[in-house]
TrEMBL record:
Name recorded for this polypeptide: Stage V sporulation protein K
Domain AAA+ ATPase: 85-223
Entry-linked Gene3D superfamilies: 1.10.8.60, P-loop containing nucleotide triphosphate hydrolases
Cited PANTHER family: AAA-TYPE ATPASE FAMILY PROTEIN / ANKYRIN REPEAT FAMILY PROTEIN, AAA-TYPE ATPASE FAMILY PROTEIN _ ANKYRIN REPEAT FAMILY PROTEIN
Cross-referenced CDD domains: AAA
């Protein structure tokens, strides 16, 4: 992970799945040993995070945020100054890299720590924020923010709000969000998400946004090995398995697709889920025609069942 603080004081976090050595630019602290009684909240979240493939640096960041909040409360207990944390975030990455799942888990963590009253997640996109006439957008945006009070407002493809030019109502949505981020900054958390390059361009369209997101996190694409692990976990959850030939075939397919498609055109974990759902239906048709319903037949996806188009 590259974890750097820039001249604005922002934390920039880069999750790196490549196997080359990383330059460490921050102090490495030893993993603390937690007392389950005192840190049950963190233990519960760690169990849920362990179910996610990869995201090792994200899991570390969640611990850092937990430690930050926990120690701040301890400072309050002994009469020391404890700043109120502004926890608005920006998630940058391609589809299917776990952004929404992580946002939901963060909401749960903050609720359990009494940072948020409810910890629920309100998902929104441009159409949910932008209205059709003057004043309509501000009202729609305010209503969504109110629904998110006590939890997280997660705006996907947030860069689309700035794409219509100066006269587009998307600018009004941005201005309304910024105002509520300031006025109600401890009542809800705003997470803006989208493709990395587009989100960086979005920040440049409104310089005032940069300082309002103290935590910016990159979600890199999964490697082929991680995609195969996601695949195996989804199969186990559904009580299916691959034949040896099917496993080889899907791995070769993933290698090819990662070399062929542009990163922004590949939906990572979502793509794996779609493949499995189509292949399970294909297997059902094969079993129906052969009338073979032994346990092994019902569980096994053969190479000919795989639907590998893109």
């Amino acid at each position: 992970m590259d974890h750097m603080t820039n001249h604005n004081g922002k934390i920039n976090i880069v999750l790196n799945r490549e196997r080359k050595p990383l330059k460490v630019t921050h102090i490495q602290h030893p993993e603390p040993s937690y007392t389950p009684t005192n840190h049950a909240v963190l233990k519960d979240i760690e169990k849920e995070l362990a179910e996610l493939v990869g995201l090792q640096e994200m899991k570390r960041i969640v611990k850092e945020i937990y430690a930050w909040i926990y120690v701040n409360k301890k400072r309050e207990d002994v009469g020391l100054k404890a700043q109120k944390q502004v926890l608005h975030m920006m998630f940058k990455g391609n589809p299917g890299t776990g952004k929404t799942t992580v946002a939901r888990l963060i909401g749960k963590l903050f609720c359990d720590m009494n940072v948020l009253a409810k910890g629920h997640l309100i998902e929104a996109e441009r159409a949910d924020l932008v209205g059709e006439y003057i004043g309509h957008t501000a009202q729609k945006t305010r209503d969504l923010v109110k629904k998110a009070f006590g939890g997280i407002l997660f705006v996907d493809e947030a860069y689309s709000l700035a794409r219509g030019g100066e006269k587009d109502f998307g600018k009004e949505a941005i201005d309304t969000l910024v105002k509520h981020m300031e006025d109600k900054q401890h009542d809800f958390i705003l997470i803006l998400a989208g493709y990395k390059r587009e989100m960086e361009e979005f920040l440049r369209t409104n310089p005032g946004l940069v300082s309002r997101f103290p935590i910016i996190i990159d979600f890199p694409d999964y490697t082929v090995e991680e995609l195969m692990e996601i695949c195996q976990r989804m199969l186990r959850e559904r009580e299916y398995q691959f034949s040896n030939e099917a496993e080889w075939k899907i791995k070769e397919h993933l290698i090819q697709i990662k070399e062929t498609l542009l990163p922004t055109a590949f939906s990572n974990g979502r793509y794996i889920r779609n493949i499995l759902e189509k292949s399970i239906r294909s297997q059902a048709m094969r079993l129906l025609s052969t009338e073979r319903y032994e346990r092994k037949d019902l569980m096994t996806l053969e190479a000919k069942d795989l639907v590998l188009t893109w």
